[in-house]
């Protein structure tokens, strides 16, 4: 009986100890954990900002947002009037865009252009993605759709 009580007490103390260690691992629950092996294929994102300029939807723009889609080795973006698309290559978090084709219809607003040719990598937490240049500066930020 005493052995059983000691075993239960030991298991209880170990459980508390492991829980305490988990809480003290240095991460705040509000910190964002970046995902390393994240595949962009089949994903769709909504533009939030280009560099430090926040995207504000023009009143005349019919589309709700500017989306960036990754499908079958191609990336495409559209503002509801004009669009761009081209090949992309992803190796881990390294990302390169090929030449983009674009439509040039007259729109009542200017396309909020992302300089995709400067993108060299990305980081994401699965909910938001930051496209980065060779100096790890943010080129554009998108949120998951």
TrEMBL record:
Source superkingdom: Bacteria
Pfam families in alphabetical order: META
Source organism: Avrilella dinanensis
Protein name: DUF306 domain-containing protein
Domain DUF306, first and last residues per copy: 39-142
């Amino acid at each position: 009986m005493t052995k059983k009580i000691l075993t239960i007490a030991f298991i209880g103390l170990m459980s508390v100890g492991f829980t305490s260690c988990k809480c003290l691992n240095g991460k705040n629950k509000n910190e964002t954990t970046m995902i390393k092996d994240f595949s962009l294929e089949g994903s769709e994102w909504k533009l939030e900002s280009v560099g430090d300029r926040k995207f504000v939807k023009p009143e005349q723009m019919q589309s709700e947002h500017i989306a960036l889609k990754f499908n079958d080795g191609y990336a495409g973006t559209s503002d509801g009037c004009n669009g761009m698309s081209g090949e992309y290559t992803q190796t881990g978090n390294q990302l390169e865009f090929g030449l983009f084709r674009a439509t040039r219809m007259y729109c009542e607003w200017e396309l909020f252009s992302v300089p995709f040719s400067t993108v060299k990598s990305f980081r994401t937490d699965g909910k938001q993605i930051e496209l980065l240049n060779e100096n790890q500066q943010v080129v554009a930020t998108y949120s998951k759709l």
